[in-house]
Amino acid sequence: MFTGIVQKLAQVKSVEQDGNLLRLSIGLGQLAVGLELGASVAVNGVCLTVSHIQGEDINFDVIPETLVTTNLDLLSATSFVNVERSYKVGDEIGGHIVSGHVGTAAALKSIRQENHDRVLTFQADEPWMKFIFHKGFVALDGASLTISSVSRAESCFSVSLIPETIARTTLGSLVVGDLANLEVEAQTVSIVETVERVMAERQ
Predict the structure, then answer these.
(1) Would the CATH topology of 8-85 be identical to that of 104-202?
(2) pTM score, two decimals?
């Protein structure tokens, strides 16, 4: 599990295709200290398992199902990614509980600057919009964010980025058309699906 607080903007060292697997090597710097094989690390919000360790360079294997639903297949050796190690019991949770199970990738529709804030508006597949609410939480590329507005008619939602988030995450370098991995809040999903099931049973 993760908190949605990005710990490092890390560079991808290599991307290799090996059969049906995509092998990523990422330079984690000091975040690699104490990391063990089999550990979970969030890369652009996707929970990946450490498969090889070579100093500060950490390898991950990505399966086809993950590539279909995320933006990891777009990475190259010049890419930067948001990285967070799994949290330990007792750690401060500055964002919200994030599982690293990305549901889809949302396309950046527009960027608007409002004084110090940067407002990003994303287009999401319609089935996911029922889990997105004004002032609710989402994780975009692993960063915990509060939803600032929602347009269900256009299947869009917006988030506002402060300068710190712009500087410390990949979200600051996104351009219109880019994809960001979207994870909706698990508690919201549970509530919405429970209500839908109860309503369906009553009909």
Answers:
(1) yes
(2) 0.92
